Amino acid sequence: MSAIQPKVGEPVTEELALVQAAKGGDVSAFEDLVKRYDRNVFRIAQHITQNREDAEDVVQDAFLKAYSNLEQFQGQSKFYTWLVRIAVNEALMKLRRRRPERTVSLDEDVKTEEDSVPREIADWSPNPEQLYKQAELKEILSKTIQGLPPSFRTVFVLRDVEGLSTEETADALDLSIPAVKSRLLRARLQLRERLSKYFQKRESGDGKK
Amino acid sequence: MKCSEFLQELTNYLDGALDDRTKSELEDHLAWCHNCYVVCDTTKKTIEIYRDSELYELPDDLRGRLRSAIMTKCQQHKKKGQESI
Predict the structure, then answer these.
(1) Mind giving me the DSSP string for A9-59?
(2) Which domains does chain A have, with CATH numbers?
(3) Is pLDDT at A104 greater than 80 in this prediction?
(4) pTM greater than 0.90 (yes/no)
(5) What is the pLDDT of residues B30-47, one digit of tens each?
(6) A189 and chain B: CB distance < 8 Å anywhere?
(7) Continuous H helices in chain B
(8) Residue A75 banded pLDDT, cuts 50, 70, 90
(9) Which residue in chain B has the smallest CA separation from A5?
(10) Rounded (10°) CA dihedral B30, B35, B41, B47
């Protein structure tokens, strides 16, 4: 079985030139950075907040905060990692406002009932994503990831959806590398467990109920 | 190798972050343990399905509106900064 192929990143030097130009007052250079990353920030925000309006606010607030604090970006990390850190914090703040009764923290190391012991070990259909119509599939994926604790789904979306490295994820979330790896393993296994009921092979052959 | 040990290394294995020796031990285990093979294969599929799902894509019209709002606020911020100098 082969490893998951990482996404290929954009050239970093070109990005640094845009950041330098924006720092020097070139607003259109900053607009290029917005165009480059607005889709990613929206996706991350919606994964964390699970709310469309909140995600829209997070996109605006995160880019404005990045613009206002550009001087503080020293270039030790990629601009994108720095932006993700801002966006994640904004998204968690939104989530806390909506769910004041629950603790929402990236530090939470949640022990859930399912945790990481696989119980569902039936094989899946060869092309599970083809068992459902596109809209149905998105509904299933969205519903499934919503059930994960915020700290797990944040690590999963940064590592596996956005393709950040373990080190970049740790940097963006202020977590240790072992903490990122532990949350990622449990997030992956819990999603797998929950998706199994939709994707496993059925005796009728076509996989549908 | 026990199944629990395999599971602990699953993330490193899927990310291609293992040395050759540990990787080969894991693959020996996969060759005879059907349950771990299924868990590994379906975890990999889980990741690929989410990565390729285009979940929460930003629609073009909303994208345009958000960008325009962001750039207006950035211009205002720049102007304020210049006035305070």
Answers:
(1) PPPHHHHHHHHHHHHTT-HHHHHHHHHHHHHHHHHHHHHHH--HHHHHHHH
(2) 12-98 (1.10.1740.10), 105-209 (1.10.10.10)
(3) no
(4) no
(5) 999 999 999 999 999 999
(6) yes
(7) 3-8, 10-14, 20-32, 34-52, 60-84
(8) confident
(9) B15
(10) -120
User: Are residues A64 and B70 in contact, defined by beta-carbon separation less than 8 angstroms?
Assistant: yes
CB-CB neighbors (< 8 A) of B71 in chain A: 27, 30-31, 34
B85 touches chain A (CB under 8 A): no
As separate numbers, helices (DSSP H) first and strands (DSSP E) second, chain A gives 8, 0
Q: Is the pLDDT of residue A103 over 80?
A: no
pLDDT of residue B1: 87
- Are A60 and B49 an interchain contact pair (Cβ–Cβ within 8 Å)? no
- Cβ neighbour number for residue B54 with a 10 Å cutoff: 11
Mean pLDDT of A7-24: 82
Tokens read off for A202: 């059925």
Per-residue pLDDT band for A202 (boundaries 50, 70, 90) equals confident
In the Cβ-directed half-sphere of A6, how many Cα atoms lie within 13 Å?
Answer: 12
More confident residue, A202 or A49: A49
Q: Taking a C-beta distance cutoff of 8 angstroms, is the pair A183, A76 a contact?
A: no
From A27, A138, A163, residue closest to B53, measured CB to CB: A138
